[in-house]
Design a protein that fits this description.
Largest interface: A-B, 16 and 16 residues
Helix content of chain A: 40-55%
Largest sheet of chain A: 5 strands, parallel
Order of helices and strands of chain A: EHEHHHEHEHE
Radius of gyration of chain B: 11 Å
Radius of gyration of chain A: 15 Å
Largest sheet of chain B: 4 strands, mixed
Helix content of chain B: 25-40%
Strand order of the largest sheet of chain B: 1-2-4-3
Strand order of the largest sheet of chain A: 4-3-2-1-5
Number of strands of chain B: 4
Structural class of chain A: alpha/beta
Shape of chain B: globular
Order of helices and strands of chain B: EHEHEE
Strand content of chain A: 15-25%
Number of helices of chain A: 6
Distance between the termini of chain A: 23 Å
Oligomer: heterodimer
Chain lengths: ~140, ~80
Amino acid sequence: MSKATIIVHSGDMDKLYSALIIGNGALAMGMDASLYFTFWGLMRLKKGGLEKGPLSKMHFLGIGKWMVKRKMKQANVRSLEKMITDFRELGGKIFACDMTMEIMGIQKEDLRQDLITEYAAVGTYIKEAKESDVTLFI
Amino acid sequence: MNENVTIVDCVGETCPVPLVETRKAIRKASPGDIIEVIGTHPASKKEIPMAVKELGLELISIEEEGNMWKIRIKMR
């Protein structure tokens, strides 16, 4: 089976949307999909952190994000919480980088363990990426 | 014939919801079942048939009325 493997390095809200939309799209098209959360991306897997990311551009101390969120609501775009739940429900895997956890002093209890499939390092990523047809760094 | 039909209502939903909800229904269905997806998102009308092909399922029909579309899929 073909596979998509995505590194989620950014913790920006808009980039998290990209990662989850592509991940869900891959699953919907019958592919396997894995998301590797590392660095700022991993911060979004902290309890209550999923929707906390700033906008990658034009954040303007939160005003830009507020405007984009309002537009998204009007366009009926699903929340990140719903998208990540969809991703898991469709069989997508979520990996948490354990080096980031060590550097940033994050414990497993601080993270959304309900969403995480595995705690892993670079070797696991390379193994998965090697078998993948689509690999992205977001 | 006794057909098991599942309706997936995606009216007013946008990317990637119609695709995701269709996939969820496909995962739950059994061979021979019919899945009927109704929606308004223009790109999904093209993309759901693409997914159907990728998944090796049968595309029965695509109907359109105004901005609404209905896609019928048969499980194999």
